[in-house]
Amino acid sequence: xxxxxxxxxxRSVFVIAGxxxxxxxMGAGLGAxxxxxxxxxxxxALAALAVWLMLWWTSARGGxxxxxxxxxxxEVRKEDLPQLVNVVEEMSIAAALxxxxxxxxxxxxxxxxxxxxxxxxxxxVSVTTGLLTRLNRDxxxxxxxxxxxxxxxxxxxxxxxxxxxxGSIVMLADLGxxxxxxxxxxxxxxxxxxxxxxxxxxxxxxxxxxILAQLFYFALSRRREYLADASGAMFTRYPEGLxxxxxxxxxxRVVQADQSRVTAPMYIVRPRTARAAHSRSRxxxxxxxxxxxxxxxxxxxxxxxxxxxxxxQAYRRETGDPLMRADDAESVQTRGAAPAAASGTAAxxxxxxxxxxxxALLRGSGYAWRRCASCGATAKVPPGVEGLVQRCPxxxxxxxxxxx
Amino acid sequence: MTIGxxxxxxxxxxxxxxxxxxxxxxxxxxxEVRNAWAQIDVQLKRRHxxxxxxxxxxxxxxxxxxxxxxxxxxxRARAESAHGARDTGAAEEALSRELGxxxxxxxxxxxxxxxxxxxxxxxxxxxxxxxxxFARQAYNDAVARYNTRREMFPNNLLAxxxxxxxxxxxxxxxxxxxxxxxT
Lengths: 404, 183
Description:
The complex is a heterodimer.
Chain A: H1 2-34, H2 38-70, E1 73-75, H3 82-94, E2 102-106, E3 113-116, E4 124-128, H4 129-134, H5 137-152, H6 155-190, H7 193-236, H8 239-251, H9 274-278, H10 292-300, H11 308-319, H12 326-330, H13 348-364, E5 368-371, E6 378-381
Parallel strand pairs in A: 2-4
Antiparallel strand pairs in A: 1-2, 3-4, 5-6
Helix pairs in contact in A: 1-2, 1-6, 1-7, 2-6, 3-5, 5-7, 5-8, 6-7, 7-8, 8-10, 10-11
Chain B: H1 2-59, H2 66-81, H3 84-106, H4 110-114, H5 116-151, H6 155-158, E1 168-169
Helix pairs in contact in B: 1-2, 1-3, 1-5, 2-3
């Protein structure tokens, strides 16, 4: 799976590079507007880069704790909320994280959750109290799996980098607009005919760059949300848990206390604002999150499967457009693994029948069953490698020569 | 002439870098598989640690089941001291069976089922079983990744010394399945 996420990161890196170019263009445009001449262009671009570096450095120093403070999150331990901590630990095991993220709770009746931490070993998962009161264990597991997906996919670092670029571009545009308003007339009077064309291009750049950068940023954010959903489904092997949680979260009409635009993209569902409670959604192109209804439909169209390939297939069926190249996902084989029982007995029965179904599929595609005579473990051997599997994977006892 | 040499040296260097990358990737994959396997054992241990707790809690209500509790303690000790996958598998299976019996006893005591202590324990038991399941799932995922990486061309040219890791599931479900915990 992670090769696929990495392959997808490549596309995300292109988006980041695009935003970087916009930033440079922005700086060059401002340079042209105020300085004129080639040197000013270069100087403007450099200045823009310097602004970005400065912001990036500040945020790296303030770090993830700043985000948690902004959201007013407090850390909880096992004794306080055993179920939440258990679920986070379970999902870290499923995602094979080296270290379990810290767990935080935000006192807020609106149900929501977010992940922070640029590096997986310094990550944290935060949920609101509203989420804890509304969701059952399976749903909570789905939400936590989505957040662990963000951590595993390194989305936090990616979105912070992109966010700071967007911030720098918007800041520069703002600066440019003010300066033009105050002293632009003096500048433009002095330039000749050729200069006018440059001025127009520069002006258009300064106006268009922030809008384009926003579109880039939002598109990136939406894509990472879908991928985190896919990871969540894969870790739990139970897409319905996340789907049902998203349904509950998006169905709530409680206005969230945290209204900061800085923290908004981090949440699993865009925090409900007082304004949005009255007028329904803005355009999807200017949203950090895909519509919840669509995410739910994709999750519910995954059928019996829970792998990345199943998610991509469902996504394509739902939206008619590929999230990423399908062959990237082909190598992921998750059907061989049994769906881990969600919780308690309720999920045990479906888990068994899902196993039977997957067994039937495997038998149909030529898998051989090998039962170890000494420990009773059964290995399901893919066709074509029978010759290579000569020992029981569990107790290392050699199999008898004749296969069953 | 010199250009030819430079090109040849560059090609050799590239080949070397590629080889190192592939080799390291395979080592990483193999370690992932091993870690994932170790994680299953960690979670089984966690289950053993929970058993005395469960027994103590139930004993407070069902004193006359002394024989059952003794048997549980015995199979737990056996599971804990089991060495090698074969013994472990058998011992875990026996432990699961006895835990199932304890849960059946609990059914007869509604006030026990409703007690805070037992509810907390129930969450821990469910979580432990989940962990075992997820650890196994992560193991299978790691194996799938590793085998794919190992078998793909051109990696397979270098992968000769790396053994195929086998995906597997236990058919003796008792060993690693959810004990019946009524909710």
